[in-house]
Task: inverse folding
């Protein structure tokens, strides 16, 4: 914790040193943090596919870790950025017709994302068209980082719901959907307090993915729109995939894996990750029911 605190202080107070500090942590953590390296290597293998060799997986895993450090530095550096400045980072947006078709259903919308790209600029783009945006999130263990991230979202007018609030957060998100508002949830790993069931993901039969996005959407019959963000040389690309319609029904956690909406969501996530495997910040062990860390 002391080391993390010093690292974050350097990133926030001495931005000119940030690239060097990020590289030191990237190299050091990959060399010394055995659990992180093991998880990253395994997840890189999922993203690259079974035909990838160990060198390709190691390089991908190393760059995944670099993507995480770059994002941390960005959040600490730009915590006071205006909504307009964050939106300006998004230079390419796709899937507008898909998104508008989902909104025309007037049953709220569940926007399911993954830990890739830059979250708050994507939220800033969303806030330009949505008056109320709710985000389910896990507070970070490091106060300096969490303050910076929350400040970014406060400036955007994002309504945050900590997963630790349990039933209260769940009820608030249901109410938001019933009021035809937007709810944003990450769907590629579980957070402490979330329910996971073994699911198929990149050929892994027991992947621990959250059941929440599908269960929440089906309580109201809201559409799910998988939406992703990736870094390009000229800025950020944000795109919405095909709308996944749901009907109002009660779906139990252990039934989510075989639900058509979950299968469609998994397919969309797999497609996005395959396009940008080195940007997938997959630090968690997807083979377990526990979550590891929270950086986005």
Result:
């Amino acid at each position: 914790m002391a080391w993390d605190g010093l690292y974050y202080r350097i990133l926030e107070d001495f931005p000119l040193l940030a690239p060097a500090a990020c590289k030191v942590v990237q190299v050091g953590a990959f060399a010394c943090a055995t659990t992180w390296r093991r998880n990253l290597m395994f997840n890189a293998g999922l993203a690259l596919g079974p035909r990838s060799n160990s060198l390709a997986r190691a390089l991908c895993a190393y760059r995944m870790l670099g993507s995480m450090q770059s994002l941390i530095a960005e959040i600490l550096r730009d915590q006071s950025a205006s909504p307009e400045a964050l939106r300006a980072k998004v230079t390419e947006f796709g899937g507008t017709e898909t998104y508008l078709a989902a909104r025309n259903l007037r049953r709220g919308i569940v926007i399911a994302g993954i830990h890739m790209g830059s979250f708050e600029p994507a939220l800033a783009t969303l806030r330009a068209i949505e008056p109320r945006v709710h985000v389910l999130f896990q507070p970070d263990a490091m106060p300096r980082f969490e303050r910076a991230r929350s400040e970014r979202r406060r400036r955007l007018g994002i309504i945050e719901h900590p997963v630790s609030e349990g039933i209260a957060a769940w009820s608030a998100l249901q109410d938001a959907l019933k009021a035809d508002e937007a709810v944003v949830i990450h769907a590629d790993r579980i957070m402490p307090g979330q329910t996971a069931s073994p699911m198929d993901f990149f050929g892994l039969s027991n992947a621990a993915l959250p059941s929440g996005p599908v269960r929440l959407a089906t309580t109201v019959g809201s559409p799910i729109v998988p939406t992703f963000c990736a870094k390009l040389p000229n800025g950020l690309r944000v795109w919405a995939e095909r709308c996944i319609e749901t009907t109002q029904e009660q779906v139990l956690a252990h039934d989510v894996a075989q639900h058509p909406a979950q299968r469609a969501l998994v397919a969309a996530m797999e497609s996005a990750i395959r396009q940008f495997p080195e940007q997938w910040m997959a630090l968690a062990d997807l083979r377990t029911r526990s979550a590891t860390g929270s950086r986005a």
Summary: Residues 289-296 have pLDDT under 50 and may be disordered. The beta strands are 90-94, 109-113, 133-137, 159-162, 182-186, 196-201, 204-210, 224-232, 235-240.
